[in-house]
Amino acid sequence: MPLSPSSFRSRVSRVSRTLAPRSRRTATVEAPALAALTGGGEHDDWSIERVLAERAIEPLFQPIVELHSLRPVGVEALARGPAGSRLWHPRPLFAAAVAAGRLAELDTLCAERALELARAAAAPPPLVFVNAEPAVVDQPPSARLLELMTSDPPFRIVVEYTERSLAARPAALLQLAAAIQSHGHGLALDDVGADPMSLAFLPLLEPEVVKLDLQLLRAPHSPRTVEVVAAVHAVAERTGALIVAEGIETEDDLANARALGANWGQGLLFGGPAPLAPFDEAGIADTADLGSASLLRPSRPGLHLPSGTPFEAAAARGKARQGTAAAFAAHMDHLLRRAHQDHGAGAVVLASCTDAETALSWLPSLRGLAERAAFVGLVAPLDPAAVGPGVRFAAGPGAEVEECAAVVIAPRYAAALCGRGGHESIAFAHTEDRALVASIARIVLQQLPR
């Protein structure tokens, strides 16, 4: 049977909504455990070390539903510590792990326990969403987590990231995304719309699922919401991603989510975080109404770690042509000028060059863009002190044959320029093919610090 919003009203009314703003791992706090936020009682002896040693993580699960039929399609796992303790709630739990220098261990344990409970369910859900902590994306997965992900689980795993993950450690996240895809699982980008950076990185991660920030539901007609939703739909139409609206608590929220074009949704209207119950297979929406988990786009191994150089990627698509160094410089001036004039805000700007003199000539433009863009990166054989603040930098190698590239990706504009050759003659490619531009950008991002 479809879930009925009205059937959840009594349940929703019992849940406090007076706490601090929701976090990725928090959702809304259940009323019986509110006391855990302020302390675990006089005899609470739970420490983060004990939690980790005893694997004392008991995740709760929140349903994700198809928004037209209101049938469930999967669940999101939400971290919880020992019940009744001061570490029950994720905020103090993760704060304790950070203070002890054990965030990576806790993040891994939360994912392991979520997958273990989902596998043990009498009727596992077809999709299990798990969160990944941005600060530890560069840590290798544990043997247990690899086992859970690769030993033919009875569901598909969707790993959620925020844009902070890619901005902080782009090369590490791309490698992790590639590993997840290689095992047939999916990616979700969370909190899209909360920060311009999320839209900027959307084409680079190209996730299976895009989760709209819950504040968009609260202001569905604002210019900012309309701008975000238009950009998200453009990506979804091009890539086949599904859109999820979070924070649906009322029937007005449901109407807004549908109007925003979300395919799926989650929130207290459909159920709060709770122990995992047998998933009702009859409740999976029919494939005709975009509700079936089987309609989640297939994985695409290799997408996030393209091989070769930027020029080789462009040449392989037949984009290269012969010209002069002056022609290449004119195209570079055009690309950087357009980025400055129209698309600097919220853009990802990347550059790489094997020639130090050429890279130095680009630095004024890159520094200027760094004041407005979501992310600016440079790979070149330069002294880091010469680069200055605002530009993410990696010292790349020099080469006998110079090769340079520049990429601009913004919500409504994408372009790349790649060249190879000497000072007299150069082969170059100037493309606005979004798929190719994103691939070139990933090649450059792989070279930035992990």
From TrEMBL:
PANTHER family of this UniProt entry?
CYCLIC DI-GMP PHOSPHODIESTERASE PDEF (PTHR33121), SIGNALING PROTEIN (PTHR33121:SF76)
- What this protein is called in its record is EAL domain-containing protein
- This protein's source sits in the domain of life called Bacteria
Which residue stretches does the UniProt record annotate as biased composition, category Low complexity? 1-17
Give the span(s) annotated as Disordered. 1-24
Gene3D superfamilies, per database record = EAL domain (3.20.20.450)
Pfam families reported for this sequence: EAL (PF00563)
Q: Which residues form the EAL domain?
A: 41-287
